[in-house]
Amino acid sequence: MLTKPNSVHQGTMGAIVQDEYGSPDVLELRDVDKPKIEVDQILVHVHAAGVNPADWAVMSGLPYIARPVYGLRKPKKAVRGTDVAGTVEAVGAGVTRMQPGDEVFGWCGGLGGAFAEYAAVSENALAPKPANLTFEQAAAVPMAGLVAHQALRDHGKVRAGQKVLINGASGGIGTFAVQIAKALGAEVTGVCSTRNVDLVRAIGADHVIDYTREDFTRKDRRYDFILDNVANHSLSDLRRALTLTGTLVPNGGGFDNRWFANGGRVVGAHVLDRFVGHRLRPFLVSPKLEDLVTLKELIEAGKVTPVIDRTYPLSETPEAVGRVGGGHARGKVAVTV
Ligand SMILES: NC(=O)c1ccc[n+]([C@@H]2O[C@H](COP(=O)([O-])OP(=O)(O)OC[C@H]3O[C@@H](n4cnc5c(N)ncnc54)[C@H](OP(=O)(O)O)[C@@H]3O)[C@@H](O)[C@H]2O)c1
């Protein structure tokens, strides 16, 4: 599947790299050195990579306040891509759980490395690949699946019988969240546009609201938990749709504010959380191994199936990242390496 420059030299590989911040055309397929692994790392022969809004953000260098982390003038790490699935090629001396040949999926770290033939990944961020998934499906899981899982279980403490609303139910995180909330026994309402109503119903939502026709914050129905992946309503409008002690995870937000992105909303949520009856819980996802394993179990039990919007060859990664950056992917976008 790989369409790449002649990566014929031993020790080099094809990878999607960038030398400056900007739009998807800063991403180039080039030969670079294969990554070297540390003692606790695994060299993964990458078969597929998942695409996330985070890849678009680092590519763009947005928000500006994150540049000390990304790299001030250009990304510290040139290779983009966070989510990975592939085969173990080699292991560091301290690695105990994996061996060459194992099929794995996981998280390369916030600063990238997955859009390449090989990636160096911490042992603690890699789990055995779900046996019933293709590499593309497995690569679609880590970041979006972890956000959905941690939002519902850790921050929402969602229990059977509760009413849950997922705003942005047809996107990367939303398609996992609808299925995980159903697996937890919740009554699930998904919010999406007209073209995605059937999809959201097909993955298990009990009720679907087409946001082009109805505004859920203006209806009478109240929810115990809302996961907002979009940030198209104010916090006070979202709170109006909660039960008296309901929980809101304000998760989404674009880059209209190029300096701080949704930082103001996150601070506002933390402040409100102290003074109102509702719980408002913005959070940063963390790549916990035990959570990757829980996702694998849910997937192998048939309770969660990744929804793949499109797959692209590695050479078309700029199009793949642009599609996700457009904010209207249906489920996940993956890159085949
Ligand atoms: N907390 C964390 O650590 C963390 C980690 C990763 C990502 N995130 C954030 O989570 C957010 C969602 O990520 P994602 O991967 O799910 O993004 P995504 O795949 O781009 O999904 C966005 C979804 O939003 C929907 N949407 C757009 N406008 C809408 C509206 N007015 N009402 C309802 N839905 C609307 C789109 O559906 P239609 O096409 O139907 O409009 C699309 O399915 C992003 O802002 C991302 O930055 C947070």
Structure description:
The protein is α/β, with parallel strands linked by helices and 337 residues long. The chain has two domains: 12-141 and 306-336, Alpha-Beta Complex (Quinone Oxidoreductase, Chain A, domain 1), CATH 3.90.180.10; 143-280, NAD(P)-binding Rossmann-like Domain (Rossmann fold, 3-Layer(aba) Sandwich). Helices cover 26% and strands 26% of the residues. It is built from ten helices and 15 strands. The chain has helices spanning 53-60, 67-70, 135-139, 142-155, 172-183, 197-202, 235-240, 263-275, 289-300, 317-325; strands at residues 12-17, 28-33, 41-51, 83-91, 103-107, 118-122, 126-128, 163-167, 187-192, 207-210, 223-228, 242-250, 279-280, 308-313, 332-336. Helix 1 packs across helix 10 (317-325) and helix 4 (142-155) crosses helix 5 (172-183). The protein is globular, with a radius of gyration of 20 Å. The structure holds NADP nicotinamide-adenine-dinucleotide phosphate. NADP nicotinamide-adenine-dinucleotide phosphate (NAP) is lined by residues 52-54, 143-144, 147, 167-168, 170-174, 191-193, 196, 211, 229-230, 232, 251-253, 283-285, 324, 327-329. Residues 22-335 form the Enoyl reductase (ER) domain. Its EC number is 1.1.1.-. InterPro entries: ADH-like_N, ER, GroES-like_sf, NAD(P)-bd_dom_sf, Quin_OxRdtase/zeta-crystal_CS, YIM1/Zinc_Alcohol_DH_Fams. It comes from uncultured Rubrobacteraceae bacterium.
